[in-house]
Structure formats: structure tokens, C-alpha cells
Amino acid sequence: MTTTTALTVTDVADVLDKAATVIESNGLHKGSLYRKQRGKARRRCAVCAQGALNIAATGSPLTPSEEAVDPGHPNVVGWHFALVISANQALTYYAGIEDVPAWSDAPERTASDVVTAFRAVEDALRKEVAA
């Protein structure tokens, strides 16, 4: 039997921090979760904001439901899926981003915009925990 821990606000802040770092290192892609690049692992390719959140949570730009994190333990996949959904909800609540993929794909959106939003929401969550 596999035991998973309850999702915390700190977990969500951590995934936003990691996702910002993914965008900084991999670059921003628009139109799909990631840009396929010959010879590069998916986790190293340029990604959209949602792909970065997925990498931060699972190591893959695909959503946890598309690619099992651990096929033998589907509850672990569910935990990672909940983490990604919670990060999306935090972006909606704290930054007003209703649809992360559409927001990320907007023509005017830059990698800096994505990183700034992720870090601002991360900071708000950490302040909430500290309060």
C-alpha cells in the first residue's frame, strides 16, 4: 500500500517556484504544452506555462493524467494532478489568470511575464503560510 501526504500550501508554492525556474531555463513555448526538439528530453524543451507546472510537479510537460508518474500507484498520479490543479487555482485567485494555457499563449505574453506571475503567486502563498 502506498501512502500519500496531504497537499499543502507550501507544496503549491514550491511547484510555482520550480515552474518559474523551468521557464527561465527552458524558455517559453506557445500553442502546445511543449516544443518537440530532436535529441532533447521533453522535460528540457521549451514549454508553455501549463507545461512548466506539469514539469515542476511530475518531471514531464504532459499532464499527470496523460502520463502516469508511477503506473503502479495511481493515487500518486492523483496527488500530482491535484498539485497542478491547485497551482492553477492559486494563479486564478492571486493573479486573476482564469485559463493558464490561454493566458500563456497570448501573443503579447513573454517568458518574463510568466515567471513574474508564478513568483508573485508563490510569494503570496508563502506569506499566507507565515501569517
Description:
The N and C termini lie far apart (36 Å). Helix content is 58%, strand content 0%. The chain is built from five helices and no strands. With 131 residues, the chain is mainly alpha-helical. It has one domain.
Q: Which key features would you list for this structure?
A:
131 residues; mainly alpha; 5 helices; globular
Q: How is this fold's topology laid out?
A:
Elements: H1 9-26, H2 49-58, H3 74-95, H4 100-105, H5 111-130
Helix pairs in contact: 1-2, 1-3, 1-5, 2-3, 3-5
Strand content: under 5%
Helix content: 55-70%
- Low-confidence segments, given as residue ranges, are none
Q: Which term fits the overall shape?
A: globular
Q: Give me the count of strands.
A: 0
- Kindly report the average pLDDT value: 86
Order of helices and strands: HHHHH
How many domain modules? 1
Radius of gyration: 14 Å
If helices are DSSP runs of H or I spanning 4 or more residues, what is the number of helices? 5
- What structural class results from the helix and strand content? mainly alpha
Distance between the termini: 36 Å
Taking the sheet with the most strands, its summary is:
none
Q: Nutshell version of this structure?
A:
The protein is mostly helical and 131 residues long. 58% of the residues lie in helices and 0% in strands.
